[in-house]
Amino acid sequence: MLHEGLQRYLSPKQRLLLAEARVGIAGMGGLGSNVALMLARSGIDHLLIADGDVVESSNLNRQQFFPRHVGLPKVTAMRMILEELNPQIDVDARHCWLDGARIAKLLPKADIWVEALDAPEAKRLFVEIALQAGYFTVSASGMAGYGGLPMQKRQVGNLVLVGDFISDVNVLPPLAPRVTEAAALQADAVLERILGALSL
């Protein structure tokens, strides 16, 4: 049912490329939960999602969870949501914290990776390990507050970085609109990698 809507906009080749792609998302918070849903709605059928956290009521203002999910591991809740949206989707849900060894072990299980972690040191570690291993990686930096500088997308080699590159969630509140905007740019970067640049 979900893919019927895509037939009107995407060619059979494009739909096949999306269906065969394997995308990993490190982190299922405000960025990762939004990226996962956007990619599933865009025709991605294979997702690996990894996060060691559980859903808390304080997450509901910007993350794609609902009160019924509070107390569940975030990856479990997101797999339920994704399977409700598309019963045929293949979701490899890993309830774990991502240290260096675990990152290195998970990387080969996907072709493209989205870094959607919270802590700056965790973000840096994931990106460094992924890039050193040769994986195309989409990361985000700066999505706090409201209004502010416009979001951007920059690419350097195998790294795409999105955000305003300045705002800090330790100073400004992480509100749904800008967090979701950054997540949308991350999802768009994944689609561009899979389908190629769109000629207008």
What does this entry look like structurally?
- The chain has six helices and seven strands; from the N terminus they run H-E-H-E-H-E-H-E-H-E-E-E-H.
- It has helices at 12-20, 30-41, 74-85, 100-106, 120-132, 176-195, and strands spanning 22-26, 46-51, 90-95, 112-115, 136-140, 152-156, 159-163.
- It is of the alpha/beta class and 200 residues long.
- The chain has one domain: Rossmann fold.
- Helix 2 (30-41) links the parallel strand 1 (22-26) and strand 2.
- Helix 2 runs parallel beside helix 3 (74-85) and helix 2 (30-41) crosses helix 6.
- It is globular.
- The longest helix has 20 residues, at 176-195.
- Strands 3-2-1-4-5-7-6 form a seven-stranded mixed beta sheet, sandwiched between helices.
- The two termini are 29 Å apart.
Short description:
With 200 residues, the protein is an alpha/beta fold. Helix content is 36%, strand content 18%.
The radius of gyration is 16 Å
Mean pLDDT: 95
In helices, the fraction of residues equals: 25-40%
CATH H level, superfamily name: NAD(P)-binding Rossmann-like Domain
Descriptive key words:
about 200 residues; alpha/beta; 7-stranded mixed beta sheet; single chain; Rossmann fold; 6 helices; globular
Layout of SSEs?
Blueprint: H1 12-20, E1 22-26, H2 30-41, E2 46-51, H3 74-85, E3 90-95, H4 100-106, E4 112-115, H5 120-132, E5 136-140, E6 152-156, E7 159-163, H6 176-195
Parallel strand pairs: 1-2, 1-4, 2-3, 4-5, 5-7
Antiparallel strand pairs: 6-7
Helix pairs in contact: 2-3, 2-6
